[in-house]
Amino acid sequence: PLCRRQFSSLVKKQFLEGSVCRNLEPRSPVLKLIVIGSPGVGKTSLIERYAKKEFKDNYSNSVLDVCQVNFNFMGNALTLQFWDLFWSEKFRNIQYSYFHDAKGIFLCYDITDESSFDSLEILDREIPEAQKETAQIVVLGLKSDAEDRRFVSTEEGKAWAESKGYDFMEISSKTNTNVDQAFEGTIEKIVARTAMTRNIATI
């Protein structure tokens, strides 16, 4: 994985407190994936578990991080570009533009935090309609290992996702449960959806 964190001059100009980890010139087609949710739900832990195969749960909150990971799909090289974003009304106009060209959007909540689940409705309204028509959208219930502290049932999360026509999965970054399945299963659907199996360079 290529995940070098540095403060982006672009983000500085936009007055956001965040960091962008970039490989400046990807050598393979880029697949942009938005991972969004309330602060503290575990988005960064999820991405780091997939990208670096390690788990930490003490990341500081930033408005935006971008991490790139090399990925091989059916013998074709892809660059997975994860945009780790927590929504802020303060930066709404800027963040709206981040959805542009996204092929996958992961709406994340913490199963132990009911307010993070309630916020999904707000986040869903902020996704541009054009992206809803073209992107694969998945609802992820994070921290599924914390069953003793659960506030949002699996059935409730699944029902909300299905009401929107989105896929659903519960995940534990701590125990590495369903992490690979969530991302790689979604990538397969994106490829099938856009007929990229015929020409993966058309991403």
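Second entry:
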Amino acid sequence: ARAYPGQGRNMGVLETVAVFDFKPEISVLAEKEPDSNQQQPVEVQHGNAANPLAFADTQAGSTRDIEFTIVNSGLLPLALTDQDGSSGVKYAVLGGPQASQFQLISQPSTGTLQPGETTSFRLRFKPTVDGPMLADVTILSNDSDEATFKVHVSGEAYPGPGARDEQWQPSAGYTTKALVDSAVPAFVNALAVRDVEAQRGVL
């Protein structure tokens, strides 16, 4: 701030000087899921691999989607980088350990955002097996301090209908073959008794 004295003893002018940083600035927001208690979109923390954005628990064989919004919160145009260059435009690229269990089902519709403008993309969690999953989405731009913006996501999948329970074990002292071997003779014996009683007219 700057102060200028006035003509009188109690007069003067106080001037506040504001400094603006004229540059593009990328921000990414994640929408809330339909069954989530989240009330507002969440701002995604760039490169936060230790605390990824989590999808709600999902049954293997089903899907969940989250829409992400890219915002230019700066004062100059934000230019997204096409990371494909061959078969089509890809401003967002999927990667990570379990990338095959996720799918980018839509891309940002534009590569240039004026200050305050937005564009979005949608990510799907589509687990085919149960267990924890990790992936990330990379966005490149002309943001001076976040030129490579990584969105880290996670998901937990549980077994779907008819899935085999790999944790099940037979009772102690028995094997699956032993259980079958003990059940078959008893069943055959029961049929023989029933046949004899039928011949005697008991049934």
